[in-house]
């Protein structure tokens, strides 16, 4: 079938097909096309239909009406040649969804990914059909000359999280036969969410699946977090951390909303929620709870809820890899990252990071009197009351992209002040004497990196930096705080400082975001070492990076392609243009021109 004819058939397939009888079976199978799809819920049925060129299968509640827009669809068709995914998606948007969804039509998501090892596109649209507000999600999957479209509909009058659980079940169970092979499951090769929690969850497949489900349930969320106020209580007995987080959110929808979906992510356990007045809120699903609000919240109005959850050592011993990265014991809490509840998705369907909404953060710690806490922001209060210690950290102007903190028997072992920067070093008491002897070298490394990056890229609006020395698996920057291992090599410290430019000040999102953040941070260290130790050192480091196939090698290739001066100018312009604003890899490629972008684009687009 020709391309034009195929596109016309796809446009016609958007309408509900005429019923040809329903199939009350757990799995719909099309052996000729080599595809299998489980139904989302036990009380749903399949209704096959379509034309001679296109097969369209609806799946919907057994007693439901299609007018309610609660249904999904599977569309199967073929082309004469390779499927033009982008052309199909563009035609679908212009000829089908824009007319069907009317004046309220909007595209919420468009990204590329792989499903069952096959190229795919993911679209999410919103609008209204027959005055009923609905979100429509579609996956376009190309298998040579065959095209599979999987569609899910979310009527906004129904709780999205419960529908999403069934749709996730259908998506995870989708099987597509490749040439000469048995059907391959879709979710088996879906890219994992690229977050700290996801990396911890890699040793726990069930936790990784939960992360994908939680992220999917929050896709298209129309709530925007404006402020977090957290109370963190640590008790050595039982090695338990209890959290109570007040979240102030704004309704970015065009209509009032009376429910708020959020994710308390693995390995934390949800305990409950309260309204702004302290009224307990009934929550049924404790994985990605839908919080019912006492009163509808008008568009652009704000409300607040308080969420309680906890973490114990028992939750961190399920996998050995987790203990070192997320340890909770009677000795304290190792560097805990990305612990706030989420009210918006943190990654797109391909697992690529989305920009985190900027929000104020205040963290109050309730600790035994011989413990203290280091968090992001500035230390606003530190006092004892009875046998408990109260420590408060505030992050307003320099709120972190990913929050982090440590708790332990820590004390400040050094402080150094320069005209532009004050550095405070915190270490555990058993390590304090040893660290004090090496503090000069550590502070000097931070200062030198700070001065160099400020001169080369541009200055930050940060005057104070806290360095917490704890048992962390890798050097990390969060806001204006560095979390380092006492034995961290100098280059790890320099990379952590570079993250304050690339990751904290310039926050990348979308395709290739994490790859480019890593590459720019490592490239910053190369430039620092070359400036202080000579170009021969830089060349040696590049050869070592080439043997490990690190992203920085591609940046070096782009630099050689366009020239050193032009590349440095582009990097500096990228920083100055995107300070405290979401940035994309496409914006960076645009500054490099055709020669530079041709080197990096294939690598970035594949991530």
What's the helix count? 14
SSE-based structural type? alpha+beta
**Distance linking N and C termini:** 33 Å
Report the helical percentage.
25-40%
Give the C-level CATH assignment of the largest domain. Alpha Beta
Overall mean pLDDT stands at 80
Net shape: globular
The neighbouring-strand order within the major sheet is 3-4-5-9-8-7-6
Query: Which architecture of the largest domain per CATH?
Result: 3-Layer(aba) Sandwich
CATH fold-level name of the largest domain: Protein Transport Mog1p, Chain A
Summed up, the domain count is 4
- Extract low-pLDDT stretches: 1-8, 10-20, 187-206, 317-325
Structural features, described:
With 607 residues, the chain is of the alpha+beta class. It has four domains: 3-189, Mog1/PsbP, alpha/beta/alpha sandwich (Protein Transport Mog1p, Chain A, 3-Layer(aba) Sandwich); 222-391, tricorn interacting facor f3 domain (Immunoglobulin-like); 409-500, Orthogonal Bundle (Neutral Protease, domain 2), CATH 1.10.390.10; 507-605, no CATH class. Helix content is 31%, strand content 35%. The chain contains 14 helices and 31 strands. The protein has a seven-stranded antiparallel β-sheet with strand order 3-4-5-9-8-7-6, with helices on both faces. It has a seven-stranded mixed β-sheet with strand order 15-17-13-12-20-23-22. Strand 3 (44-50) and strand 4 (55-61) form a beta hairpin. The longest helix is centred in the last third of the chain and has 28 residues, at 429-456. The radius of gyration is 26 Å and the shape is globular. The model is unreliable at 1-8, 10-20, 187-206 and 317-325 (pLDDT under 50).
